[in-house]
Amino acid sequence: MTLTSDQIRAARALLKWDQKALAQASKVSLATIKRIEPLSGPIVANAVTIEALRRALEAAGIEFIAESGVGTGVRFRKPGKAN
HTH cro/C1-type domain location, by residue (predicted)? Predict the structure, then answer.
């Protein structure tokens, strides 16, 4: 599944994380996060960076919702549900 900048911003909002918190959790530089978040559409970054962001947010309880004809999204994962 492709992640979008909108999903990253929405996930941070659900978690009440600022960009610095995401940088610390994902080990992705703050500068990189500041570069990719304002863009629209799929994240343009290397695969390692995208996977680091995804893993950090999923570890914090976020589930990414794939495009299903009505748009992408994010939500909290049900407790006990695996990634």
Answer: 8-64
Q: Which two tokens stand for residue 72?
A: 């992408």
CB 49 within 8 A of CB 32: yes
Per DSSP, helices labelled H in 16-83 are 19-26, 30-36, 47-59
Quote the pTM value.
0.88
| % pLDDT > 70, the chain | 93
Owner of token pair 């492709």: 2
Spatial neighbors of 22 by CB under 8 A, at least 6 apart, are 8, 12, 28, 33, 53, 56, 57
Please, what are the domains in the chain? 5-76 (1.10.260.40)
